[in-house]
């Protein structure tokens, strides 16, 4: 009776009781429970109430009046929201009457049928619009138009302001950029008009680690059956255990039912045999970052898979330019400032995770092994004292973390998502700075964001100059989908980014 989902740190509670989303007991209870759920969730920064269909809410369900009070009452919901520290916004379309207005706090028509507004509106309405306007609405029961409501201060006149905001510009830019890149063209002459997409009915993933397991989970929850191959049963079982706990977490969060989760799980085929990839349409390799190992795997896949099967390596090497620059620019920050600072900067900006949380997820040893392999090929030995490599500053702090078996943060469980500062890591950082004679300084959020954004923008220009991308929008969409860049922040894209600074 009230749907719940979280998007970009905002919990959306959607009243779902057609035709007018009246506030029956089940709807009220669902609103109350979901508001409490959003308030408890540390990942949620704000709450939006909306109505499904063409109306917000037409008020209480008068058919229930003779049956006594059941479930949470409107005053309970209003009082709870008043006491929340997180902002709660009602996005109104159509009518918001009676209890709907009291929840939204555009009329209170109860008096027309012999009822006194009982959901707290007689208290909240005078606060919002003054006593004179409130009495007029409460006593007459007349409906108030959106324009009149905005004029008297009952609703915030935000929609026209939003249209001219940077966030609105960013969303419109992202909308058109995604459609623009669908009209792609290759230097060879191939384009969107002359090709057809290949259907992917089944997929395979090699490697059941954090990255591979996560990719396999995305596939099966998207409706694509997946073969998951690992080198031995021990590693496979460990990966499956983590995957199942993550799948059950989606059930706990209300994103799918238990039955839906089990149906997804049944489409996963775990295996220790590479030969089980012979019938899949797509293979994604997500093994240990070792180029020789990857080469051996693809030579075998070339013989096992169908000729038309797409073979995709999950490369994390320094040749991946954007990732490389973001890692290099931000890796040095913990030496100069507290680890939570870049994390807070990126999350406040709208990123789902901080950079160091991402490294913990994929494994801090991945970048360490990439650099070590690159150095080995050049005859260089990297040590914690190595300050420069390939003419650039080298952050050897990661080497110390790997030696100690540490990530950047500590978590409540192996699959935990809430990051906590680890005092032992703080000591490792401070000891590292003392050993190398590095003077720490305060780095503000502004500098953190400039380091990230300017490096990415600069690399984007280089990619355009080299002809690696045909249009600037391709790069901005890579930001959106490759980095999970917040669409609202493509105001950076709309004003500063590649697409608007040519």
TrEMBL record:
The 3-hydroxyacyl-CoA dehydrogenase NAD binding domain is annotated at 203-311
Gene3D superfamilies in the cross-refs = 1.10.1040.50, 2-enoyl-CoA Hydratase, Chain A, domain 1, 6.10.250.1420, NAD(P)-binding Rossmann-like Domain
Q: Which Pfam families match?
A: 3HCDH_N, ECH_1
Record keywords, A-Z: Isomerase, Lyase, Multifunctional enzyme
**Which transformation does this protein catalyse, written as a reaction?**
(3Z)-hexenoyl-CoA = (2E)-hexenoyl-CoA; (3S)-hydroxyhexadecanedioyl-CoA + NAD(+) = 3-oxohexadecanedioyl-CoA + NADH + H(+); (3E,5Z)-octadienoyl-CoA = (2E,5Z)-octadienoyl-CoA; a (3Z)-enoyl-CoA = a 4-saturated (2E)-enoyl-CoA
Report the superkingdom from the record: Eukaryota
Which PANTHER family does the annotation name? 3-HYDROXYACYL-COA DEHYROGENASE, PEROXISOMAL BIFUNCTIONAL ENZYME
Family (UniProt) = In the C-terminal section; belongs to the 3-hydroxyacyl-CoA dehydrogenase family.
Q: What protein name does the entry list?
A: Peroxisomal bifunctional enzyme
Q: Which organism is it from?
A: Mya arenaria (Soft-shell clam)
């Amino acid at each position: 009776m009230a749907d719940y989902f979280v998007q970009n740190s905002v919990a959306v509670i959607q009243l779902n009781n057609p035709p007018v989303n009246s506030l029956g007991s089940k709807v009220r209870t669902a609103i109350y429970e979901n508001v409490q759920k959003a308030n408890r969730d540390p990942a949620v920064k704000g709450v939006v109430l909306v109505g499904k269909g063409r109306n917000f809410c037409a008020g209480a369900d008068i058919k229930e009046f003779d049956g006594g009070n059941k479930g949470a009452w409107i005053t309970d919901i209003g009082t709870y929201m008043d006491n929340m520290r997180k902002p709660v916004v009602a996005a109104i379309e159509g009518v918001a009457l009676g209890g709907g207005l009291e929840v939204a706090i555009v009329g209170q028509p109860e008096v027309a049928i012999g009822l006194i507004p009982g959901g707290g509106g007689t208290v909240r309405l005078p606060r919002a619009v003054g006593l004179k306007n409130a009495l007029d609405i409460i006593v007459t029961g007349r409906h108030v138009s959106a324009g009149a409501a905005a004029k008297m201060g009952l609703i915030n006149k935000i929609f026209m302001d939003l249209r001219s905001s940077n966030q609105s510009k960013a969303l419109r830019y992202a909308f058109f950029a995604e459609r623009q890149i669908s009209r792609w063209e290759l230097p060879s002459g191939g384009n969107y008009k002359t090709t057809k997409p290949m259907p992917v009915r089944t997929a395979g993933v090699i490697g059941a680690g954090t990255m591979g397991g996560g990719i396999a989970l995305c596939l099966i929850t998207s409706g694509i059956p997946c073969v998951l191959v690992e080198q031995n049963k021990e590693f496979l079982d460990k990966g499956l255990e983590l995957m199942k706990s993550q799948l059950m977490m989606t059930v706990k969060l209300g994103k799918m039912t238990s039955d839906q989760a089990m149906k997804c799980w049944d489409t996963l085929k775990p295996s220790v045999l590479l030969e089980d990839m012979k019938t899949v349409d797509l293979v994604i390799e997500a093994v240990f970052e070792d180029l020789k190992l990857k080469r051996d795997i693809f030579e075998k896949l070339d013989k096992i898979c169908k000729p038309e099967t797409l073979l995709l390596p999950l490369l994390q090497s320094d040749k991946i330019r954007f990732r490389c620059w973001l890692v290099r620019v931000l890796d040095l920050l913990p030496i100069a400032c507290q680890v939570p600072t870049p994390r807070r900067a990126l999350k406040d900006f709208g990123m789902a995770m901080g950079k160091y949380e991402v490294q913990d997820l994929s494994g801090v040893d991945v970048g360490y092994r990439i650099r070590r392999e690159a150095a080995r090929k050049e005859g260089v030995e990297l040590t914690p004292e190595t300050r420069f490599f390939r003419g650039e500053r080298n952050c050897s702090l990661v080497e110390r973390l790997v030696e100690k078996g540490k990530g950047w943060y500590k978590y409540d469980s192996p699959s935990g998502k809430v990051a906590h500062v680890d005092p032992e890591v703080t000591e490792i950082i401070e000891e590292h700075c003392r050993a190398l004679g590095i003077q720490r300084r305060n780095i503000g959020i502004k500098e953190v964001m400039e380091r990230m954004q300017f490096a990415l923008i600069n690399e984007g220009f280089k990619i355009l100059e080299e002809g690696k991308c045909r249009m600037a929008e391709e790069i901005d969409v890579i930001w959106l989908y490759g980095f999970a860049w917040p669409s609202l922040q493509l105001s950076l894209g709309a004003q500063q980014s590649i697409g608007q600074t040519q």
